[in-house]
Design brief:
By secondary structure, the protein is an all-alpha fold. It is built from 16 helices and two strands. A two-stranded antiparallel sheet has the order 1-2. A hairpin with a 2-residue loop joins β1 and β2. α1 runs antiparallel to α2 and α2 crosses α14. The chain is globular, with a radius of gyration of 22 Å.
């Protein structure tokens, strides 16, 4: 199924390169979004599962950095090439070039072991061992000890995952909090990026400032999360976002078509993008392997809904909308407080491991 992921995205982009009707282009953009989600989220999950806990923060940091660079390049290309057909064609070529690793990457052994496929797990471990200097012999490993008796008895399926969520309040609670946080993050991030023309005096000035802010944030996110941890870094991010939305409430003209509101929104991109980049890492570590795909799907769906709602809110910022955004940022801060730190822990394999992790974590809050 891995070749299908870039295939959907490339095909939709190529269709957009030869489309001359806006209505049809909207449909093509829908399939482009599906392909983009399959590729980006799938590879993010794979990177997290193949990376030791000491380096997961750096991997996500690199992904965030390239996202910010791509954002800057896309802004510049749109300024130089306003024709959407050429933009879609250029994007298709870029995806074809950058998607090559998808066809040669090794499947995560965690995926196989949660499906009780021990033979494929050993093959995956052998492939990974061949890339390192490890002297571990996968054939000598007792893989049964990594699964409890209940985990061995379960069959990995969507129905079973939903049943596990229903029967595991801890897993369900953490998942619902993450869904809400992703909804708010998508609203903040895409709301700003699709409303610069009404927030700042010049559309491209807004995109340029935002892209530079996101680039600097991507560089600063790794050391910040590494120093403070996932939980505290996100608490600071959403709390800072809340303060800037509150700062934007007074109607203060700063001259040159700039206002306190526009400056506050520009500054908020630093906090918003920091949370946007970090939430991928944190969700990948919070969700167990047995439910990681489902949790990411639910969170991304919530983020997509937020990304549709956000531009409407940010295009008409007033006391009510800014107050509402500040409340959502405050609730996201509380949500982060209720979740656990995962930077120093091995990724959970099953929902029962999530329960055990939270029980051990209670005495370490703040």
């Amino acid at each position: 199924e891995w070749p299908l992921r870039p295939g959907v995205l490339v095909t939709s982009l190529l269709c957009g390169a030869f489309c001359h009707q806006y209505t049809i282009l909207v449909v093509i953009r829908y399939f482009q979004g599906i392909g983009s989600y399959l590729l980006s989220t799938g590879m993010t999950i794979l990177c997290l599962e193949l990376t030791p806990k000491e380096f997961r923060n750096y991997v996500i940091g690199v992904l965030s950095l390239f996202w910010a660079i791509g954002y800057s390049l896309a802004t510049g290309l749109h300024y130089l090439i306003p024709d959407w057909n050429l933009m879609f064609l250029g994007s298709a070529v870029a995806v074809i070039i950058t998607s090559f690793p998808v066809f040669i990457c090794v499947e995560s052994p965690r995926y196989y072991i949660i499906n009780n496929d021990f033979e494929s797990t050993r093959d995956s471990l052998k492939a990974l061992a061949s890339l390192t200097t490890s002297e571990i012999d996968p054939d000598s490993l007792d893989l049964n000890k990594y699964l409890s008796s209940s985990a061995k008895a379960r069959t990995q399926s969507l129905k079973q995952q939903l049943k596990d969520l229903w029967n595991n309040p801890t897993l369900l609670g953490e998942t619902l909090i993450q869904i809400f946080i992703w909804f708010c993050t998508g609203m903040f991030f895409y709301g700003l990026n699709f409303a610069w023309e009404v927030i700042v005096p010049n559309l491209y000035t807004g995109y340029l400032i935002a892209s530079l802010g996101e680039l600097l944030t991507a560089l600063g996110t790794v050391p910040l999360i590494g120093k403070l941890g996932r939980r505290r870094a996100h608490i600071i991010g959403y709390f800072g976002t809340m303060l800037l939305y509150l700062l934007a409430l007074p109607d203060v003209d700063l001259g040159g078509q700039w206002s306190l509101k526009s400056v506050s929104c520009v500054l908020s991109t630093v906090f918003v993008y920091g949370c946007f980049a970090g939430v991928y890492l944190w969700t990948g570590e919070l969700a167990p392997t047995s439910h990681r795909g489902l949790v990411f799907c639910a969170c991304s769906s919530a983020s997509t809904i937020g990304s549709f709602v956000g531009p409407y809110i940010f295009s008409s910022l007033n006391l009510v909308s800014l107050g509402g955004l500040a409340c959502l940022a405050a609730l996201s801060t509380v949500g982060c407080f209720l979740l656990v730190e995962t930077g120093d822990k091995t990724i959970c394999l099953t929902g029962q491991d999530v329960v055990y992790r939270r029980k051990k974590y209670y005495k370490y809050w703040i």
